[in-house]
Amino acid sequence: MAVVGIDLGTTNSVVATVRDGQVVVVPNTQEGYLHPSVVSFSPEGLKYFSTDAVARRILDPKNTVYSAKRLIGLRFRSDEVQKALVRLPYELNEGNNEQAVFIGPDRTYTIPEISGLLLGYLRQCAELFLSESVSAAVITVPASFNDSQRRATMDAGRIAGLDVLRVLNEPTAAALAYGLGQNMSQRIAVYDFGGGTFDITILQVENDVFEVLATGGDTFLGGDDMDSALLNILAELFNAEHGIDPRGDQATRSRLLVAAEQVKRHLSDFPEARGDLKNIALGSSGEALALRFHIARSVFETAIRGLVGRTIQTCQDVLASAQLAPSQIDEVIMVGGTTRVPLVRAEVEKYFGRPPRTDLNPDEVVAWGAAIQAENLANAGESLPSRAVLLDVTPRALGIAVTGGFAERIIDRNVPVPVEQTRIFSTSSDNQASVRIQVCQGESRRFDENVPLGELELTDLQPARRGEVSIEVTFKVDTNGILRVRARDGATGAAREAAVNVRGAMSEYEVAEAAERQKSEEASNLPEVPEA
Amino acid sequence: MARMSTEQLAAFVRQVFPRLDQLSYYELLGVPSGSDQAAVRTAFYRLAADLHPDRYHTLADRGLKEQLEMIYARICEGYRVLTTPDKRAAYERALNQGKKRLTTTDRESRGPQNPEDSLKHPEAKKFFRMGMICLGRKDWKGAVMNFNFAHSFEPAAALIAQKLGEAQAALGKPGGAGGTPPKTH
Ligand SMILES: Nc1ncnc2c1ncn2[C@@H]1O[C@H](COP(=O)(O)OP(=O)(O)OP(=O)(O)O)[C@@H](O)[C@H]1O
Ligand SMILES: [Mg+2]
ipTM score of the complex? Predict the structure, then answer.
């Protein structure tokens, strides 16, 4: 029975495990180690995964789901989902409990179900490659993921039939993989620029203890944005030559996006990119028009300078919150495919005043760390050579709504977990029978400006004058960064615990049901054996 | 730094857990009261290496695990207070008053919302309140009745409809509502 570490990425996922003290990465069905995070559906209900599904982004964009990580754990009506909707060619709708659901050809799928399908596929790849069953996993998430995003990721793991040992922050995993700070005290910055998200995390590492000092990021900033910038450059070139904007047609757009990504990669290694894309549009007399391009790296760099600048700004903010100057950082670790862009490396080096570490593969380093941590957890009772302890913090402040539209903070941001805090509130009207405790995540004083997480109710309060009943609200965040809320009626002393009904999430029952369904479907839909 | 065995962890819990509320953060972390931040951090890291929940992730004894986690959470709290200058100053004052833990015992002036406040009709408010009382007592039948009355006075209120739905769902299921959230339509 093996345990694995999974970097469930926006664009690519990586699975790794520890074998005889060595990290091994599970290969994909082609030549690499990255499993594209794509699931595609045929009208007959057949599913294509990862490498087999990538081409279907162009062939059948409506039924091919990618970037699910941009949607997971978010309410359909959240700004993030609404923003993503505009860019995604597949259809989403609002489902049960305010969730975003994908409208598939056979039925609707919740986002944890989509990610669960992918995780199930990754589990099977690992099982075939390792020739043993995989029961448990550590799954990584961006440090900036909030409570509901973490829960939803765990739900996805459970749907895939995995015992999720831990949702681990990606930067912490990367630092662990580098094995830093073994005999000394070091401050490390992990700069993670992936396909869809950017994260910067500052860690203090000392004698195998990894403490997150501060973390921040942008869930809407990544290599995808660079692709879009290049897509625009390509489209403008075509438009200038033929007077037609090829972005209007969804299929052409998808094709151009794929080309843009290839051009981007090429420009990481070469000063210019040339190419010829046939059949982009039809001319006035029905002839097929091609897009010939020649793009210099400097043109690309001008287009993405703003994006890179935003990451540096975030670095500044996070360092400031930890009251640190860039010169106080001993090492900078680069994570994520987008850190291969030369401008990114140059700007990071300029800001921190030192060349960043790139010696471990930036695409795999997170999965490495996850695999090490999975091994640590699964063998917690035994003596292992690696004794790393990961001390994480709350990514955002947590609070509740109080009268007047305000948010009252209960747990601060960047507090080490596990943590438990209680605050005492009063009733706001005479003979109040119940209170409604709305939970939110974020730093704003106004409730509306924070992310709503869910709510719970305390009923059956003793009749009393306003302000006479005290209500104790206790927040508890566990080592997975997941919140539990308890409310107690101080007047009767009766402890009343209520579960938070998390908005935008699947219910326990739905998760269990989805897990059952996936298990039975998997049996009849095995992936191809990766060439070991 | 040898890892603690299960027996050692159990002995540690027996010793510390019953006195948890009587130990100051300094005592809990094992540092003298004048210690600077670096010393507090070193002490905390040493403790975390043994007491972080990941260390006993596979521990079968649930009760022991929970108590260890509570001790560890308190150690984290102490670490944070002692390494945050303004919190530490507040803690010194609290210690002088004989308190071992920095907690706010003050009651906030503002309270969480009263769900009734979003309702306009006084009769709707009244029946809604009675419905909520029934819900609290798991009297689903009474809850449905009262929410129905409330609904008739203020049909546009989404909150009433939601609660009515919850009560109906609970009533439909013998044995109680349990964890299934209401269907929202
Ligand atoms: N050589 C390269 N040059 C530039 N960009 C690259 C290169 N290789 C990969 N990328 C980009 O890296 C991104 C994928 O990175 P990665 O696999 O780290 O992301 P991810 O982990 O899936 O995303 P996230 O961390 O946001 O969840 C893509 O945008 C891809 O185009
Ligand atoms: Mg990543």
Answer: 0.78
